[in-house]
Amino acid sequence: MTAKIIDGTKIAEEIRGELKGKVDELRKQGITPGLVMVRVGEDPASVSYVRGKSKASEELGIYSETIVFPEDTKEEVVLAKVEELNKDPKFHGILVQLPLPKHIDSDKVLNAIDPKKDVDGFHPVNVGKLLIGEPYFLPCTPHGVQQLLIRSGYDPGGKHVVICGRSNIVGKPLMAILVQKKKGANATVTVCHTGTKDLAATTRQADILIAAMGSPKVITADMVREGAVVIDVGVNRIPDETKKSGYRLVGDTDFDAILEKAEAITPVPGGVGPMTVTMLMVNTVRAAEMRLAKKR
Ligand SMILES: NC(=O)c1ccc[n+]([C@@H]2O[C@H](COP(=O)([O-])OP(=O)(O)OC[C@H]3O[C@@H](n4cnc5c(N)ncnc54)[C@H](OP(=O)(O)O)[C@@H]3O)[C@@H](O)[C@H]2O)c1
């Protein structure tokens, strides 16, 4: 058996197509969804991520601005900017690009964002609302994983989903999304981490296996049940002399070996990655729609 490849780029394009219609509709009603991104410092990955989000906004007709502070900016300056943006009606969504420099308390900054503009879904109010099943916004990467599953014909309902990784940005919110008694969720969820005694014995029980660990090829073929669906969230750089950059990107799974065993698998790159930015656009449009609904 050779696994079906779940094409994240194609599914992301499909969602953006649907979203364009919503943006056009909002604009007809005099509302242009607005996203502001705050970046502190020149971390190359952050520069590239913010640029990608800005490009995606532009393509969809979402107004976006990027505010860049130098690396040595004081915490109170960033906090004051967030307060100002909370009140600025041009922006429906605020995103502070992480990581922030070490002298700035990221939690303090994220907690300062108005939960109704928190399009990353990291504010404690949004984390709590997600857990009780009443979210304003779903965090982008976990929401992207859920959409990949649903739209490729692998509804998680009634399935045993094993998530490897319990971070606050991927593993835990994904668990909270998939365990809800809702359409496109309703799964039995197991979450693994470095304290899990026998990782392979647990992963082999998965109908849907999700790897979000940040370690190259930790999930090998013998850890995957025949016919399982595998979603690889991991993005790891490994040295590759054949590449101009000297490295290539791989996920957390041994893709080539698992291809022969799984029912379906996401590639890296081209799987979860394109979905993350798209779900940020979804949240920005939702924030604009929420504001409009409040005005009515
Ligand atoms: N494609 C995208 O858009 C996107 C978005 C976000 C993240 N990512 C990628 O996804 C990966 C995970 O990101 P993250 O932010 O969630 O990482 P993280 O904060 O480093 O968390 C990693 C989690 O995996 C667990 N873990 C690590 N190695 C393990 C092992 N050998 N066995 C069992 N559990 C293990 C850790 O367990 P402990 O809690 O016990 O330490 C932790 O819970 C990274 O490669 C990241 O680049 C991709």
Fold and architecture overview:
With 296 residues, the protein is of the alpha/beta class. It has two domains: 31-114, Leucine Dehydrogenase, chain A, domain 1 (Rossmann fold, 3-Layer(aba) Sandwich), CATH 3.40.50; 140-273, NAD(P)-binding Rossmann-like Domain (Rossmann fold), CATH 3.40.50. 40% of the residues lie in helices and 16% in strands. The chain contains ten helices and eleven strands. The strands form three sheets. The chain has a six-stranded parallel sheet with strand order 1-11-8-7-5-6. α6 crosses α7 (171-178) and α6 (140-151) packs across α10. The N and C termini lie far apart (54 Å). NADP nicotinamide-adenine-dinucleotide phosphate (NAP) binds at residues 141, 164-167, 169-171, 192-196, 199, 212-215, 218, 233-236, 272-273, 276.
Task: Give the SSE layout.
Blueprint: E1 4-5, H1 8-28, E2 34-40, H2 44-60, E3 63-69, H3 75-87, E4 93-96, H4 106-112, H5 124-131, H6 140-151, E5 160-164, H7 171-178, E6 188-192, H8 199-203, E7 208-211, E8 229-232, E9 236-239, E10 247-250, H9 255-259, E11 264-265, H10 273-295
Parallel strand pairs: 1-11, 2-3, 2-4, 5-6, 5-7, 7-8, 8-11
Antiparallel strand pairs: 9-10
Helix pairs in contact: 1-10, 2-10, 6-7, 6-10
